[in-house]
Each structure stands twice: as structure tokens, then as C-alpha cells.
Amino acid sequence: MLTTYPYQALTASDFERLLARNTDPSNAIQQSVIAIIDEVKANGDTALRDYTEKFDGVRLENLTLTADEIGALASSIGRDQQRALEIAFANIHRFHETQLRKERSVETMPGVKCWREPRPIEKVGLYIPGGSAVLPSTLLMLGVPARIAGCKEIVVCSPPQANGSINGYVAYCLHLLRINTVYLVGGAQAVAAMAYGTASVPRVDKIFGPGNQYVTKAKSLVQSLSHVSIDMPAGPSEVLIIADGTANPQYIAADLLAQAEHGADSQAVLVCTDQRIIDEVQLALDTQITALPRKDVAAKAIAKSYAIQCNTLDEAIAFSNRYAPEHLIIQTDDWEPLLRKISNAGSVFVGHLTPESVGDYASGTNHTLPTSGFARSYSGVSVDSFLKKITFQHITPEGLRNIGPTVEILAELEGLQAHKNAVSVRLR
Ligand SMILES: NC(=O)c1ccc[n+]([C@@H]2O[C@H](COP(=O)([O-])OP(=O)(O)OC[C@H]3O[C@@H](n4cnc5c(N)ncnc54)[C@H](O)[C@@H]3O)[C@@H](O)[C@H]2O)c1
Ligand SMILES: N[C@H](CO)Cc1c[nH]c[nH+]1
Ligand SMILES: [Zn+2]
Description:
By secondary structure, this protein is of the alpha/beta class. Helix content is 46%, strand content 16%. The chain contains 16 helices and 15 strands. The chain has a 6-stranded parallel beta sheet, sandwiched between helices. It has a 4-stranded parallel beta sheet with strand order 6-5-8-9, with helices on both faces. A 3-stranded antiparallel beta sheet has the order 3-4-15. Helix 2 crosses helix 8 (213-225) and helix 7 runs parallel beside helix 8 (213-225). L-histidinol (HSO) is lined by residues 135, 137-138, 237, 259, 326, 360, 367. Residues 135, 137-138, 237, 259, 326, 360, 367 line the site of L-histidinol. Its EC number is 1.1.1.23. This is Histidinol dehydrogenase. It comes from Parapedobacter pyrenivorans. Zn(2+) binds at residues 259, 262, 360, 419.
């Protein structure tokens, strides 16, 4: 059951409470993640084996799978599943390859030429969640743009299943991506291993991928403690649905539950201008949830979720922009005029026939997206996430005559004589 709040009656403290998610107020998650990072730094593979036994319930001697083992697992899956993964791979590839655009060089003054060239990040680490559900789709979402960018070394970490291996679907995605090793490590320990390196797991330059609160906290900590960078905070899934009287309550309930089933810490928010629709969504949720294998998880997430009743769609957009959802779904007949008003969202799904699950798997857009309000400042994963853009410049004699005197004055006003001299010696 979603608690309903009238938008007009929301106070500043209501906003603060409703906009917050996964805050770790007692710092319990941070404390345990710091301990895990320290342990992995100190004891490497031994710590990885111990944590894998503790959290994933399996004692591993070898933390990797060989190319032959991956190949055997990949060929064990059904043809329909292979084809579905191939279609997802192709669509993600098609959408992402358009992001590799060459920029033009600019002559900012005659003889002063500037340009930018992309270079792949050499060593990247991809975290593929596998705690409550194994997500082969995430491997495609990270591996495809990494391949398009041209990253030389792609390290994949994912928690092992109870049998000490990965599932065949993840193996098939590794095969599609031409990646022939996987490290059987999950959680904060996997993030620490990729940040610092162990005997088995190579250290990388940038860590990508979603995960639970432990994984997300570990990513932000290693970013500040080591030389590794991260894609973004991509934590527990969330969705915000904007709807009016034209929406179908069954579709709304299905979309709310699709994100709720990810985990008890997911959030699913409905912002609607029509109280009748909210009431019908509540009934649809009650019916649909009973048929879900993961109904217990979904029920916990729904219990922490809510509905906002607005008078206008402008109010709904205003709330959504403050919430900055990972996923925004707009279920209204007349959605087009609303698009330009959206300022904060990870990925947007418009119209009645656009479930968020299409973006999770196969439409082509990336499903690794900022959560917990970070859509205010971060974009989802793209080919750009795997590239650095290096700037270049070249000055001709004419260019030096044009720009030199300006630089001399600016260097002088900052009191940096050597900067000025570097120009002056060339102008003499
Ligand atoms: N934002 C996005 O783009 C996006 C995309 C896909 C999935 N997700 C989210 O990713 C998350 C996946 O979570 P998950 O748990 O299923 O898998 P996960 O792989 O992120 O986490 C599993 C690991 O968590 C660690 N762990 C579990 N309990 C722990 C504890 N008490 N202390 C320390 N470590 C512990 C274990 O090492 C375990 O291997 C979900 O919340 C899902 O919503 C987000
Ligand atoms: N909804 C998740 C992103 O928050 C992505 C995902 C993977 N599989 C299913 N869904
Ligand atoms: Zn999902």
C-alpha cells in the first residue's frame, strides 16, 4: 500500500524525508565497508576468499574462471535465451556507437588552433551484481560501451553463485563481448580488489557498475582513498511515475513493481493528478504482487514507497525534478510538452506503451544510471564514460603575434613572470 501525500500540503520537512533514500544514518554500512577495504588492502586474495565465504556462502580456491570454463557455461544456455541476449547486445551497440562522434577543430584566433581527441581508459573494472538476482544485462550495458571505446583491459567481477561459478547467461555475455576471464568476487571486496589490485584481481583505472549499498559506498570510498575513479553512484533501483487521468492503473502498478522487485531498498514513487487512478493503482498493486516470485522483496520496497497527489502536471514535474529519479516514466496522452520541463532524471520513458523494463534490457539505452538524487549532476553510463578527452593546440607565427600580447598581460596581472617570459622569448 502506497501512502498518499497531497502535494500542496507538503512541508519542507516532508520534502526532506520524501526525497531522501538509503541514507545510512548510523554509518553502519560505511563502517563495515571501510573494514572490508582495509582487509583487502592488507590481505589481498585471502581476504577475498574469506569474504566470499562469509557473504556468498562459498569457499573458493580459484577466484577466476578460465576461457574454457566460460565457453562451456555459455554453450549450456538455450537458443532462445542466446538470441534474446544477441538482440539486446545489437541494440545496445547500435545506440551507443552513435556516441563516438569526432569533434571539429576550432581556430579561436587566426593561427591559434585547438582540438580534442578521445582516448580509451586503458584498464576498466566492471561490477556485475549477483546478490539477490544475477544481472547478465548489466554486463552488456557496461561491456558494450567499453568495447566501443576501445578499452584495452576489461576486468569483470561478479559474486559467485552457490556452486562457485557464474551462470550461463553471464558467460554468454562474456562470449559476446570477447572477454575471457571473470573474477568470482562480489560486494565491497570486489570494488576494493579492483581499486588496489590483489594477486588474482588486476588493479584498474576506473570502476563501473551498479550494486547494493555496500558496493555503492565502496565505490565512493575508493574513489576518495585511491587513484581509481568511478562512473557514478548507481545504487538501489528507483522509479518515479508521472501520470494523469489518461493512465492505465495496471501498467503503473506493473512498472512500480518492476523496480520494487530489485530489492527491499528500492523505491517506487507515483506522482499523479487523479486520485481515482491512485486508488486503482493501489488495488492493482495488491493483485499483481501476489503473483510475483519475489513478492516479499517487492512488498518491502512498496512499503517504503509513496504516492503524491498533485493538482497539475506542472506540480508533478516540479516534484520529479526535486526527486531526480533514476528512472522517470510519464504515462499521459499528452507527454510531449512535458519533456522540455524535465531537468533531473537518469532515463525517461514516455507514453503508455513504454515500460521501463525495455530500457533495462534491450531498447538500446544504458541501464546503469545515477540513483539517490545523483541524477541532478551525473549522467548514466555511455561510451564517454570509458573515454578521456585530451585537448591539443598548435600556434603558428601569426597565432603567436595574435595571442601573445594578451597572455603576457594576463600573466603579468597574476604576477607570474615566468609565464609571461615563455611567450616573450618567442615573440622577440
Ligand atoms: N542504479 C543502477 O543502474 C542499477 C542497475 C542494476 C541494479 N541496480 C541495483 O543493484 C543492486 C544489486 O544488489 P544485490 O544485493 O542484488 O547484488 P550486489 O552484487 O550489488 O551485492 C551482493 C554483495 O553484497 C555483499 N553484501 C551482502 N550483504 C552484506 C553485508 N551485510 N555486509 C557487507 N557486504 C554484504 C556481498 O559481498 C554480496 O556478494 C540492487 O539494489 C539493484 O536495485 C542498480
Ligand atoms: N532496473 C535496473 C537499473 O536500476 C537494471 C536492471 C537489470 N535487470 C533488470 N533491471
Ligand atoms: Zn530493473
